[in-house]
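Quarterly update from the structural biology core.
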Amino acid sequence: MNKTLRVAAAQLAEIPSDLTGGICAQSVNTLMVTEGESGKKAAERLLEEIKVDAIRQYSVSRMLVLMRRAAELGCDLIVFPELALTSFFPYFYIASDQLLLRFFEREHIELGPARPLFECAKRLHLSFSFGYAECANPPSDQGNGRRYNTYLLIDKEGNIYKYRKTHIPGFDRPRAGEANFQFERNQFHPSQEGYPVFSVSLLGKNQGVPEARIGMLICHDRRYNAPFLIMGMQKVDIILNGFNTPFNLPFMSALDKNVYRFHYLPLQAQAITEGTFIISSARAGDVFGVRQIAGTCIIDPNGEVLRKTEVLEEQLITAELDLNLCEMVRSQKYWGSRLEPHVLLKELGRLIG
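Predicted structure, tokenized:
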């Protein structure tokens, strides 16, 4: 059976400085830590200058351009990065809930600022995927809702499939004298929903109706074996991964020296182990004074990097995926019939007490 798809990985570039105010996250965080209450107020005034709604509009406008280009190239699916609408705001420590929630979507995603993406994709008959900051239930007097780092896949019929990030890296708050660089743990709740794999019909223009088993990860999730194993046990064909990864990690010089090796090699190994394609999309260039590595890539089940880009600007890379290759690679594991999940469960139970 013909199960060939053409896919695009869309790398977004930095946000224009007139929208960010040219504000550097490190400077804002230093004010928060070293200057007491006056520093906190000064930092919050700087954060208020960031034109968050305008950033959303700009990001959506660039995503629309890339969608149209992908459609012209005959793509069935386009994949965008983590936090695509706002760029990676967790580089800031934001103490005020009011300021923080400016970066979150608090209504149905298809009805808010991202609505043009849904409308464009429907016109183009294109599936798409992107990440955003989700306030899962509206703020109230009792609290500000559950805040998730969320990733979506939308098929050509408009059906929405959702994954919420499990592994939340970074720090809770900045500390004087420590090399803290991002604060996801202060801003997002970890999801307990696991790693679903969805059967998605990606309707090709000149082909049948290839059905793909698709899962999603977000950035730091890719540093762990378990998500890939769990999705592999569900016979995943394609894993979508949106990420933001910086150069010059202050606490890990070894990682910085091997930043691309540490990015591609684990993905290649997991692709081979689970017999899956991996599409990984980044934002590149400067984000609030932090330089991103790019590294958008498409990897096949044999671990071959079909396409990649390390250019620190907007890029669109494409590849054809033959989903039959997934079954061929998985057959090396005897179609999973020799897997012993009860042994894994026993060992996990022993390790976590």
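The chain has one domain: 4-352.
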